[in-house]
Amino acid sequence: MGRRRRTRATRPGLLAGLVAAALVIVAAGTFTVVRLASADTKPTGTTAAAPTPGTPAPGTATPGPGESPGALRNGTKSPSPRATPAASPTAAAVPAFFGTLPPGAALPSGARCARWVLARPSPENKGANQPFNRTTGQHVGSSFFPAGDTPQAGQLLAPRIDGDFTGTTSEILRWAACKWGINQDIVFAQAAVESWWNQTTLGDWDSDASACPAGHGLGADGKPGQCPQSYGILQNRFPFEQASWPGIGSSTAMNADTAYAIWRSCYDGYETWLNNVPHGTPYAAGDAWGCVGRWFAGRWHTAAADQYVAKVKQYLSERIWTTPDFQQPG
């Protein structure tokens, strides 16, 4: 979060993709940029014409007011005392695809997104994530966003962060996409670049002991004299997101929830500090890809940011998350 910088060679997802997919096109030392106009313009709410396999039958429990979608999935929430149980959403009423919502749009709640996602379940393709997928996160407080963001980030976005969802890895990523109004395929592709969808990924190793979270001191994670600064499926960077610890490390949902809350702050125009640091073009709201690049570089449309965007677009065009070598269900 904030001014994040990385060495590209440390990207676990990138290295895995080069080995597994062998599809990276290199020309003059730069990645080929694949332009996909539909990637951030596909409308939210697209529905399938017929129910999909696995759609819950009428009467299946769904979160009611104040109920936790994570608890619902785990079966730990007691039934609501309502006389008539709420009906589950039918497949025809559930969005089949979550697209990008415009800046300032009214965002669906986490509980609503949980109902929608669980009505169209998807299998687990990253078995090692299961302990982290069953773990929820925590609230971060209104001071989560840096002072350089406008007050709206703390007032409107920070209270929504809670990591309160459990499911398969793809369901968690869809839930975050729904909750923060970002195209789900961008989320899938970016998580592949960052970690190959592995919540156990550690990155941005450094010798600065002050940047190590509790339990991850210098040398504790296998590299003498160093600790990882970035954790999880989106490689959230602890020094800039301390209020989200330990959730970003222990919970896949918290990791994705926090990452795309930050994306939304950028996309809604709240990260005005981006115009006060080196930038390629003036920062403004509504640039979905610019905010993807900012996640990696901590800068706006610089060479490093745009190169990262090109890699995410490449994975999106390949739909890398659907390829056989990407699947690790066991």
What does this structure look like?
This protein is mainly alpha-helical. The model is unreliable at 1-12, 14-67 and 71-86 (pLDDT under 50). The protein has helices spanning 12-20, 69-74, 110-119, 130-133, 151-157, 169-180, 184-195, 247-250, 252-267, 288-297, 303-318, and strands spanning 26-27, 30-31, 202-206, 227-231, 236-237. 32% of the residues lie in helices and 5% in strands. Strand 1 (26-27) and strand 2 (30-31) form a beta hairpin. It has a domain at 8-47 and 110-203 and 231-326.
Task: Write a short abstract of this structure.
The protein is mainly α and 330 residues long. Helix content is 32%, strand content 5%. Helix 1 (12-20) crosses helix 7 (184-195) and helix 9 crosses helix 10.
